[in-house]
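User: Show me a protein chain along with its predicted structure.
Assistant: Here is one chain, sequence first, then C-alpha cells.
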Amino acid sequence: MKHVLSIAGSDSSGGAGVQADLKTFAAHGVFGMSVITAVTAQNTCGVTMVQDMTPEMITAQIDAVFSDIRVDGVKIGMVSRSASICAIAEGLRKWQPEIVVVDPVMISKSGYPLLQPDACDALVQNLIPLATLLTPNLPEAEAICGFSIHTEQDMEKAAEKILLMGAKAVLVKGGHLEGERADDYLHDGMKGIWLPGIRIHTEHTHGTGCTLSSALASNLAKEMPMDEAVKQAKRYVTVAIEHGIALGKGHGPTHHFADLYKKAGIFEL
C-alpha cells in the first residue's frame, strides 16, 4: 500500500481540508497521514475563525512522519502564513519526497481569506519550485501570475508562467470560466493538453479543490503517468460532485465514497 501525507488545515465540518484529504486517500486505497497547518472553525456556511499552528509544530509533525514512515506522496493545501510555508519548504527539502502536489488555497468558498496577503510571495518562492504538480483555480492563478485570466488562451499563458517559476507541471482549473464548460488545462512541462469538463449545477461543492488535489497525489503516488492521473482524478471528483451531500444550511460537501457505496449496494444519503 502506498502512503500519502496531507499538509493542510483542519475543517471542523469535515468537507474540506485534511478531513477531505483523508477520505479521498481512503477512497483511492492509499494510507493517509496528516500534518495540521491550521485549525479552522467552519461549517457549510463559511469560516468564522482560523488558528495557525506554529512553524515549530509544523516542522515537528513533518519530522515525526518522515522519520518513521515511508512517504510516497505529499499533498499541500491550506497554509496561511509565510513562516508556515517556509517551515514546510524546509521540511520537504530535508526529506525530499518524490511526489508533491500543491493546491494553492487562498480563499474559502464563502469568501474568507485563507492565505495572508504577504504569504503569496512566499508560496511562489518556496513551494512552487518544489511542486511536482500545482493545481490553481483561476483566481489563484491570477494571484500567482499577476494578470487577469478570462479565456482559454489566458489559462495557457498562466500555465507557462507557473512552469517558469519552477513547478514541474501545472493544472489550471477552469471551473471559474463563464458558460457551461469547465475545461482544465494541464501542462506537464513538455506539452499542454485540454481536459474537457461539464459544469454540474449544484450547491454542494465544498472541498472540491482539496478532493481533486488529494486524488491527484494518490494517483501519482501509485505511479500513474501524469495525464492519466489527472484524468482519473477528474472522473473521481465529477462523481463526487454529482452525488454531493445536502449537509447543513450552505454548501454541502462532495461524496468521497460515492463509487464505493454504489459497489457495496448501500448508496443512500
